[in-house]
């Protein structure tokens, strides 16, 4: 057999499973079609860590609740930005109160602590900047915010340092059962393995033909990212609830900004989005908005099919709004299933540590001077908005599973996420990538094979 375990898909779930399994004496590979791992994570540096109180599904609730508490330790260990900010689900009518009461009773029955049903006065005590009418709210002290791709990258880096092979730019085309395991066919290779963990959402292969498919029901969510200078920022995650859905969310981002998410099936223009946002935060004006974007939001359940696990095929299908939250618990659950089936033993030399790195913007003056004395590239700021130094960008490229694209550098360092959206630094990032990878600047790509950033050289600039 080529591998003991093949993990298909290098998203957050695949990377979490790879990390957990890398603790054991197993020969493991992750197959990912993109240039980089976790490339599908929504492009916002802040995701909500749910606590399992909002979902009606008991398994998802359990995975969220365990994931929430695991993330506290994991983020500390791997130096991933994480903050427990709390959340308020607010309602404005009696129908809403009934929904919150059901949610509260469900949470209590599930043993979720630190959840309170509160009246309007208590809401304004917790969130003095909230200016809209509130009838009742469900407060959770468990809700947190996290940098999602930093978590995925940390999982992958530690798995890589413990021997997991990452096969990037390789597309899974088929999975077949063979006598003592499986054959996985990609666009480049054919591999045999004892166990397959398939985290590719939606696709069906020869092995899946007799299985039912899960239908993904997408809602559109449109975002307004407000400037860090916006004064009426709410410090909790605040969700305005109508029926079973969150109509509008405001999330305090880890970099000090404010993200407003508007759930809608329509494509709204800027003016309409501002009007919707003002239903939660009346003070917001067009001058506060830094950027606008949209994504597809999945309400559906994940479908975790381990019915064939004794024969070695585990399939995780579907998309879910809380996949970042459940990644640690689901990764552990997948690992336990595999380990018990293969009777694997723990590695004696497992290194549960991410290689050190500097985050210049979070350092004191003394720490910065020390870093610069070791490598003067830490003294050269490339992204002025987010204070990202050349040293950090070089490290992001040279690390295990390092960045090879502009997008990879952005996600790993936070460069270009500031007010100028990369107008100042993007050409410098391209130059550094080209120098480090021994390529021409015109060969550097945004995030995939055909996404060149520079079309061609301009004749006049011969030494570009
Ligand atoms: C708008 C939005 C907001 C969200 N907010 C939150 C939040 O606040 N909190 C939270 O907990 N979660 C949130 N999520 C969920 C979360 O970000 C994503 O759902 C999650 O990153 C998906 O992880 P995954 O690993 O399961 O799937 P994916 O990231 O989809 O992983 C699957 C991987 O498989 C690869 N792949 C696909 N086909 C093939 C193939 N044929 N061969 C090889 N590889 C293949 C893909 O490239 C991908 O990397 C949000 C999602 C969205 C869209």
UniProtKB/TrEMBL annotation:
* Alphabetical list of Pfam families matching this protein: DAO, Fer2_BFD
According to the entry, every stretch annotated as the BFD-like [2Fe-2S]-binding domain falls at 381-435
Q: Which organism is it from?
A: Clostridium polyendosporum
Superkingdom per UniProt: Bacteria
| Protein name (database record) | FAD/NAD(P)-binding oxidoreductase
Q: Which InterPro entries match?
A: BFD-like_2Fe2S-bd_dom (IPR007419), BFD-like_2Fe2S-bd_dom_sf (IPR041854), FAD-dep_OxRdtase (IPR006076), FAD/NAD-bd_sf (IPR036188), G3P_Oxidase/Oxidoreductase (IPR052745)
* The FAD dependent oxidoreductase domain, residue ranges: 4-336
